[in-house]
Amino acid sequence: DQQVKQNSPSLSVQEGRISILNCDYTNSMFDYFLWYKKYPAEGPTFLISISSIKDKNEDGRFTVFLNKSAKHLSLHIVPSQPGDSAVYFCAADWGTSGSRLTFGEGTQLTVNP
Amino acid sequence: DVKVTQSSRYLVKRTGEKVFLECVQDMDHENMFWYRQDPGLGLRLIYFSYDVKMKEKGDIPEGYSVSREKKERFSLILESASTNQTSMYLCASRGQNSPLHFGNGTRLTVT
User: Fold this and answer.
1) Which residues pair with B5 in a beta bridge?
2) Residue A2's pLDDT band (boundaries 50, 70, 90)?
3) What is the largest CA-CA distance in chain A?
4) Alpha carbons B47 and B23: distance in angstroms, whole number
5) What's the structural domain count of chain A?
6) A interface with B, Cβ–Cβ below 8 Å
7) Do residue A101 and residue B95 have CB atoms under 8 angstroms apart?
8) Structural domain of residue B97, as residue ranges?
9) What is the mean pLDDT of residues A29-44?
10) CATH number of domain containing B26
11) Do residues A11 and A106 make contact, with C-beta atoms less than 8 angstroms apart?
12) Could you tell me which residues are beta bridge partners of residue A79?
């Protein structure tokens, strides 16, 4: 039972344009959401997060939007850069520290120069 | 900066061997995790630990065990390696109210 789903295995965009990565979840108990980025041969690194009390969080070129009624979140990257090419994982959590993240399948983003 | 170190980047083992994957973190984090990453399946939690000598099963614990004798070290053990355990294994740690910090992974091949 996949509680966090990223339905697009891959996405290709032109440098300078917007990248939009999507994520859907089924468990209404989730109250904290994160995005991780992973380059080949490296571990995932934390990118940005959002609490369920917000609907938007911004950090430089990265913005995460949360639609709780639709159980959907998205990551926007503007403008996209070739160095953004990586696998992006969406993750969801609930409760206090010590609980465990549930990850989506990942989306391979390729930004073409 | 948090550092999570996995002792091996690549391992090749034979079916039936006992395999130890070691992980050390340097930030005094209480919580440590073992995930495996497979194409199309994302990251799946095998085991986690929230304190020394404590362990909890994750989503796919079958065929694995863990050991946490010291706070900074969390070991994953494959009691009898099988080919379906060929995967990328990722260790992570997490403190209070902080995101997961991952190691660089161990690519295990079981032949």
Assistant:
1) B24
2) confident
3) 42
4) 13
5) 1
6) 4, 6, 9, 34, 36, 41-46, 49, 89, 91, 97-98, 100-106
7) no
8) 4-110
9) 92
10) 2.60.40.10
11) no
12) none
Report CB contact under 8 Å: A98, B30: yes
Whole-number Å distance between alpha carbons of A10 and A8: 5
CB A76 within 8 A of CB A13: no
Give the CA diameter of chain B: 40
Distances (CA, A) of B37 to A75, A80, B91, B105, B107: 21, 26, 11, 9, 10
Structure confidence by residue, pLDDT tens digits, B41-97: 999 999 999 999 999 999 899 999 999 999 999 999 999 999 999 999 999 998 877
Print the domain residue range for A70.
4-112
- Residue B59 one-letter amino acid: D
Q: Has residue A94 got a pLDDT over 90?
A: no
Nearest to B43 among A45, A46, A103 (CB): A103
Tally of domains within chain B: 1
